[in-house]
Amino acid sequence: MSKVRFSSKRLLLTLMLCACSVILLQNYDISQNSSFVFNLLCMLCGLAVCFALFVPSIIIKKRTNLDFLTVAHTVTPKLKIPIAVLYSLYFVWAAEFFLLPYTDMFSKKYYSDVTPCLIALILLSACVYAALKGVNVITRFGIFLFVFALLTNILMFGGSTGTLDFELYGFEISGNLNDFIQNTVYFIIPAFIVTLFACLSGKTKNFRLRQPLFALLVTGVKYGLIMFFIWFSLGDYASKQEYQTFILARAARIGFFGGIESLYLALATMSVFMIISLVLCAVTKSAGRESDIKYVVIFAVIIFAAHMCGSYLNSVKEIFTNNYIFAVFTVITAAVIPSMYIFAGRKSNARKALHSINMS
Amino acid sequence: MRARLCIVLICLSAVLFSGCQSSRKIETAQIIENVTISEKEGQTLYTFYILSSADTPLKTEIPAESFEQACELAQNQYIPNITLSKLELLMIEESLIDRVLKTDIEYISTQPSFSPSAFVTLCDRKTLEKFAESTREQDIIEEQLILLKKNNPAVNINYLSVFNHFETKKTSEFLVGTVSFDGELKIGEKKDIKNEK
Q: Which of A40, A67, A142, B137 could form a disulfide with A14 if both were Cys (CB 3.0 to 4.6 A apart)?
């Protein structure tokens, strides 16, 4: 693998697109009983938590200019295997968390004749190739995806402005505690990019604090716009349909040209492809063999096997796609464990180990 | 090693892609472009207009209680290769408003295959007769509905907005587009659609 460092901006841009894709696969995750303004407040709380979870990774990056996994393996070599197992488990879980809704949406909304496992297999095959190329190449693809996402979003929002209905749906605040918890937990999910950042930021340079802030800010704006258009353009119709963002793309109309669900699906496909490619990079890194073909293929096979279980067993699928479990898991891997290493870094032996890394 | 792996994956994908053979081919699919709902001898008649290049519309008439039942009958008996995802226009005879408008719109709005931006309008019997004669009428009606919406944004011309008006508690009455034929096609609006919750 190349030892060349690439711009941190590019990694954060790619992670921002990954975070934005969460709402593309939204399916009744946001409470149907709460109002738009209430959902917006929940989103702000959720993204504030996401930024708080970023803090330990930022501190590690600023102090050592390395990723968390390298620091952990150096500071506590005895804990190498437990850390590797925990992060490998998390990344396999994260892959399922996005792959299962994506294949489900594809087969339910777009092409019902194809089995979800076939879509997963084809997508994973492409992801294996991307993971072998490394994070640097994937982040270059992120630049292309950013432009494509911008175009798709402009068409989706521009095509929906004609159907905005401010008479039927207003800016009132309504919702209860359960709605607040459900929505806020959902908006903490983008924090999975923090774990990815913690594991993949070792080869980046010129990191600035404003980069994660900007990534979360753009994510928030996109979430806000999608919720706005779903609320005011689709209204109650959205609550009767699965995958509301897909419906928003389908309902978009520009003159006589209507329905840009193909563009939306392409965007969702590329976003999920990028997430799983980065996850494969991160999972092999956590196992200590970054972009090693054997490890990439082994983890891809594990992800595919877990996807098959999730496709055929509904209880497994529910566990894999449970927002609460995933959010807790994310908090542990993104903030709790890195925080422990920050405090451990104060001890003299840990400081020596970190100093030796910096010197090398 | 990587090249070999890529070749194996491509071959595997090619073999698995053959699963698409069982899918419905575009040549054999019967794509429904429009549906009209009329009354004939006291019975509700659903007429499915199939997409074709002919000047005279290709249609299948199905007597049924509701749109849901009509779709089932079409699938099982009349049009086995039916595709409803490209449905663009639903025209309902004015006398059937109370009987079918709400139930059929609700059915369409809860199904994943229909496009939410498809047009829905009321019409008189003469328009339906004219509609069955030529394929040009559909384009004219759609253009006129878009113009009507531009001139009066309060008019509901697609079933997404009609459904939302039926679901909401805020309004008791709302507007939908109407088409009438009196020597030429005329587009207007009907005001007294009641939202009875």
A: A142
Phi and psi at B133, nearest 5°, equal: -90, -35
Measured CA to CA, the distance from residue B92 to residue B101 in angstroms comes to 8
Residue matched to tokens 């903490």: A188
Backbone angles phi, psi at A17, to 5 degrees: -65, -35
CATH of A6-359, one of 1.10.4160.10, 2.30.29.30, 3.40.50.10260, 1.10.260.40: 1.10.4160.10
Query: Which residue in B2, B7, B8, B9 has the most chain A C-beta atoms within 10 A of its own C-beta, making it the best mutation to test that interface?
Result: B9
Q: Where are the domains of chain A?
A: 6-359
Q: What would the pLDDT profile of B14-34 be if each residue is shown by its tens digit?
A: 556 555 555 556 667 788 989
Q: For residue range A84-103, what is the model confidence (pLDDT) as tens digits? A: 999 999 999 999 999 999 99
Average per-residue pLDDT for chain A: 90
Q: What sign does the dihedral A128-A134-A139-A144 (CA atoms) show?
A: negative
Domain boundaries, chain B: 29-194
Task: With cut-offs at 50, 70 and 90, classify the pLDDT of residue A355.
Answer: low
CA angle, residues A101, A107, A108, in degrees to nearest 5? 80
Taking a C-beta distance cutoff of 8 angstroms, is the pair B45, B62 a contact? Answer: yes
Asked if A259's CB is within 8 angstroms of B117's CB, the reply is yes
Q: What is the pLDDT of residues A106-144, one digit of tens each?
A: 888 877 778 889 899 999 999 999 999 999 999 999 999
Partner B contacted by A118 (CB < 8 A)? yes
Facing residue for A237 by CB, picked from B9, B142, B164: B164
**B105 token code pair:** 């719109």
**What are the residues facing B45 on neighbouring strands?**
B38, B63
Both tokens of residue B17? 């892609």
Taking CB atoms and an 8 Å limit, are A250 and B13 in contact across chains?
Answer: no
pLDDT tens-place string over residues B106-137? 998 888 888 888 889 998 888 888 888 887 88
Burial B11-48 (b: 16+ CB within 10 A, else e): eeeeeeeeeeeeeeeeeebbbbbbbbbbbeeeebbbbb
pTM: 0.87
CA terminus-to-terminus distance, chain A = 18
Residue A87's H or E segment, with its range, is helix A80-105
